[in-house]
TrEMBL record, chain A:
Native source species: Pararhodobacter marinus
Cellular component aspect of the GO annotation: cytosol
Pfam family, one: 4HBT
Residues that span the membrane, as ranges: none
Residues in the signal sequence: none
Protein name: Thioesterase
GO MF, any single term: 1,4-dihydroxy-2-naphthoyl-CoA thioesterase activity
InterPro entries xrefs: HotDog_dom_sf (IPR029069), PAAI_dom (IPR003736), Thioestr_dom (IPR006683)
Residue ranges constituting the Thioesterase domain according to the UniProt record: 49-123
TrEMBL record, chain B:
Record organism: Pararhodobacter marinus
Name this polypeptide is given: Thioesterase
Superkingdom of this protein's organism: Bacteria
SUPFAM superfamilies: Thioesterase/thiol ester dehydrase-isomerase
Domain Thioesterase: 63-152
Pfam families attached to this UniProt entry: 4HBT (PF03061)
Taxonomic lineage: Bacteria, Pseudomonadati, Pseudomonadota, Alphaproteobacteria, Rhodobacterales
Amino acid sequence: MTDATAAQQFIEAIPHSKALGMTLEEIGEGRAVISMPYDTRFIGDPATGVIAGGAVSALMDTCCGAAVMTFPGARGTATLDLRIDYMRAAKPGQRIIARAECFHATRTVAFVKATAHDEDEGLPVATASGAFTMESVIRPADTKTGTKKEGAQ
Amino acid sequence: MSRPRPEPVQVVKERRDRALKTLVGGIPYVQWLGIQFDRRGDELTATLPFDEKLIGNPFLPAIHGGVTSAFLEITAMIELSWSMLWEDMEKGALDPQSVDDAHLPRLPKTIDFTVDYLRSGLPRDAYARARVNRSGRRYASVHVEAWQDNRTRLFAQATGHFLIPSRDKTA
């Protein structure tokens, strides 16, 4: 619960998500649902009025990150890798909803899948799959390993 | 047999710059993010000037991963469009005068895009360059790299596949 509230506050404090008009619809237990309204400023193809792929990937990235944040034991996260497949053009004028699920996490890495739909709930506009860093709550067992090697600075 | 006199350099430059400006300026999302393109011959470098609205993590602070992804995707897509436009323009197949807001070349469609985040994006300007590794009749594969202060220390890279618009129509 506190995780979900913290995640909600965290997401709503992200300037870029705010700038894109994202709204957190649902969150908790490694899942997140975030929507983004249609906005002519985010058009990627002036000939068709379709939203830019980049705006959809920003939505997917935020949603995947939110899902990781609420995975039990998670504290913070950053994207390592994100792949997006664009199935079809989003309908101009319709909002886009992303749903992400963190389906597995180790102490260091979280794996996430996401889909994005417009108002047509059939074929997704895009799907995403990614790996995220996992900053988990430090357990006593972890602190014992004293020979911690960090990468070059 | 005499070669026609080469065009004055200003005429050539102006033509190329105008075509690039029309291509980039016509995309609202590129304008909203504030991305600019520098041209040296056919080589393009994209710049993403830092802005508060690009922040993804206000505590670090760091650029939003989605901004990085969008920046890379736009750079890849413009590079691909530009390389096609350039070819047509240089061959004389396309009259650059005919390229205006109402007659833009059709843009490639992204099929997939994979971003590799190497470092967090710092709150300062970012640069990117793309390379078309393969461009066929229908599909293209483009690789793109982004850095900030140091060209050799990339903060992100990506590879994407694009569907090339059919060439018979430019509008």
